[in-house]
């Protein structure tokens, strides 16, 4: 599942390509034909992201809501677009550009009240300027469940996925199984600030890098990480390998059906 930085990058791309232009929308697959017909001719006011949810605001109280889920993806390019294939749920075109959406978990039109209801179900997003971290803290400070579980709960913090979760807990030396109510405000604030830093860097770079300069491949004389998720990380998918800071083998475990990674020495 893409993490929040990916969706914020998509929103930026869609603003760059389409904002201020009247769109043509099609559904080569047919499953979004009615929605595409309603979008066609409307001007995109803006695209934005809240956590892993992409929203397009069109005139006339029409919002497009996309959640990519596990298999969804957007591609875009300059006109002319490629021949549409039947797996394309939604094709947008305007301004000499096109964007194709395939395989989303959700692709639907919402009204403004429905968008407000969606936002109300989501926790603050570290990448949004209007995020209020105290809303996340109020949930975490009362919770008996592990901090690692809370960070993946989109109603607590929106946009954090498995990589950012593992990495921010490592960087802030928080043991992942610590109950939320034992975290403490200072550590929560440090985790939040670090998420803002890491996720902004992810938006800028288009990949997740979390390793400080002194632990980089160059500084440590080691080969760069080879992983389809890219980026230099401390613990994510490194179970059994030596911690980059202390050399202890990184631990891996399953928590709530998701893999969790941490260093038992550095995080205590
Ligand atoms: Zn360590």
Structure, described:
The protein is of the alpha+beta class. Helices cover 30% and strands 21% of the residues. The chain is built from eight helices and ten strands. The protein has helices at residues 4-18, 33-39, 112-121, 133-140, 147-152, 162-171, 185-205, 217-220; strands spanning 24-26, 44-50, 53-58, 62-67, 73-78, 88-94, 97-102, 106-110, 251-255, 258-262. Strands 1-6-7-5 form a four-stranded antiparallel beta sheet. The chain has a four-stranded antiparallel beta sheet with strand order 2-3-4-8, sandwiched between helices. β3 and β4 (62-67) form a beta hairpin. α1 (4-18) packs across α7. The mean pLDDT is 96. Zinc ion is lined by residues 243, 245-246, 248, 263, 265-266.
Separation, N- and C-terminal Cα atoms: 28 Å
Structural class: alpha+beta
Question: What overall geometry do the principal axes of the alpha carbons give?
Answer: globular
Number of helices: 8
Mean pLDDT rating: 96
Count the beta strands: 10
Widest sheet: strand order? 1-6-7-5
Main β-sheet: number of strands, strand sense, barrel status? 4 strands, antiparallel
Radius of gyration: 20 Å
> Poorly predicted ranges (pLDDT <50, ≥5 residues)?
none
Strand content: 15-25%
Order of helices and strands: HEHEEEEEEEHHHHHHEE
Question: Which cofactors or ions or other ligands sit in this model?
Answer: zinc ion
Helix content: 25-40%
């Amino acid at each position: 599942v893409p993490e929040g930085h990916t969706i914020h990058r998509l929103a930026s791309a869609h603003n760059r390509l389409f904002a201020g232009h009247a769109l043509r929308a099609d559904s080569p697959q047919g499953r979004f034909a009615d929605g595409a017909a309603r979008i066609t001719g409307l001007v995109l006011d803006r695209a934005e992201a809240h956590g892993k949810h992409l929203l397009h605001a069109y005139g006339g109280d029409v919002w497009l809501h996309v959640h990519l889920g596990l298999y969804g993806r957007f591609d875009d390019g300059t006109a002319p677009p490629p021949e549409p294939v039947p797996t394309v749920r939604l094709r947008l075109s305007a301004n000499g550009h096109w964007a194709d959406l395939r395989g989303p978990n959700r692709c639907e039109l919402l009204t403004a009240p429905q968008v407000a209801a969606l936002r109300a179900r989501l926790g603050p997003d570290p990448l949004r300027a209007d995020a209020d971290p105290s809303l996340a803290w109020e949930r975490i400070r009362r919770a008996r469940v592990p901090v690692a579980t809370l960070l993946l709960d989109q109603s607590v913090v929106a946009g954090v996925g498995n990589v950012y979760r593992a990495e921010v807990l490592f960087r802030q030396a928080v043991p992942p199984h610590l109950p939320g109510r034992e975290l403490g405000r200072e550590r929560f604030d440090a985790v939040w600030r670090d998420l803002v830093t890491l996720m902004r860097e992810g938006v800028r770079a288009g990949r997740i890098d979390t390793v400080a300069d002194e632990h980089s491949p160059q500084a440590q004389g080691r080969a760069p990480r080879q992983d389809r998720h890219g980026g230099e990380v401390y613990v994510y998918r490194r179970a059994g390998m030596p911690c980059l800071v202390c050399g202890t083998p990184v631990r891996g475990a399953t928590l709530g059906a998701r893999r969790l990674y941490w260093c038992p020495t550095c995080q205590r």
